Amino acid sequence: MKTKLLALALTTAGLAAVTVAQAQPAPTSPDPAAPAPSASTDPNAPPPPADPNAPADPNAPAAPAPTTTSTAQPAPPPPGDPNAQPPPQDPNAPPAPPPPVMQPPVQPVQPPPQQPPPPPPPEEKPKGMTLLQRFAGSAVAWTHQASTSIFGAESSQNVTDPAFNGNGRQFGDADVYTQTFTFVPGLFLYRDARHNVRLSTVVALTTEYTNNDISNTRYEPQLNNIPIRLSDTLSLAAWGASEGGTAAAGAVARDPTLAGAAEYRTQAVVGANFILPTSPFAISNGLNFATQLTAGVRQQVKLFGSDSDYLGNITFTLSGAWTYQNWRANVPVNSGINVPRQTSRGTSFESDILRGASNVENRVGSTLSFFLPIYGNLQLNGQAGLTWDIPFSQTGNDCDVEISTGCVDLDPNDSTLRQSTAIDVSLYYQFLPELGVDIGYNNTNNILHDNGTYRNPLNSPSAIYYADIIVFPQSLITRLTTPPKPATQTGSR
Fold it and tell me: Is the pTM of this model over 0.70?
């Protein structure tokens, strides 16, 4: 009985040993076919290389775990085995390095979305002009005119002055002295950096104080023709701006379009006039109306600069004008005057014809002028002009002259040009922003004398001296309405 029990225990122990041996993982480095190390074998010697083709010995004992320090990690257990034991850890092995930390992929830095550029600030529109500023350049003048004969020059001899758009002043043998009150209102309709649109007129009342044939009665005031002018001054170019200078004060007071700090400036001036026949000469000679178109270019040139007190700059203006005059007849007529006349046969009749000379239908003129600041507010002005008068052409009738032998036909009288010149030079001084004085000399006369000889363009019987006292209402009102500045307070110790 004891023998059977011992044999059963040994059998059970053998099966358990076989089961444990089969459950251990196969060693990877020692060769199962190699002999086990003996007592004389170096325990530290490396095992012989394993034969990969040798069959595994199921009864071979498990190889001891290597004691060498190795950084190699043990092989993981085969997947799917729930009873697999984790490989033994070497207590002397250095700690395994931590697994690499997986960094998230570096995303490229995206630039911030571009914002649309901010809209540019709105352009500052030029401030509108006040009602008072719109009347800049308006003037009231008191003019004195005296013929040069008063001062000992050649006396006048029935010279027609064509300078007043049909006024037709007739200077006789006597000396002539007149006074004229002139009102020149102007209104800016539109004004910006390029355009200066202005509406203006001239209302002048002339009185003669000598015994001449200008008026019918003594000290008779006569109204000159009234032009209604619409003009535009266009800025074409400007360069060389100064720090604080501008055009001459006298020039700006008369013509505000000259204001500005540019040393060089180019401007174009265009205008249209409608002339009302309000003078006694125009009314009595049958003028219905007149129109005028003007165009010119103005150039300012730097001399010593606007900041200089003298000879700052000079301004030239070259302009042309065409005037059309509409008359009731080709010759001067006056329906209120019936002049007795006689035909070639001796028959008397009444006629409204004043003279046999043809009226001027078209007038073309050109003018070159300049102004130059001499020193401070003293300014020199000059002007030279040439005018061509184109009268109506006279045609003949079927029987121009009837004599005892029959009618005589006259050849048509072709239109001939009548030329006249004008020279004007003056000195102007601006005493105050609202007050200026102008003293000058003017000679306007026909090129040919009555006897067919040429006249001196610089001096003739119709030459005059004149003096103007000019007041600028806009500047005067500004002075009166502007409150005075408080006086500076000075302390004392």
Answer: no
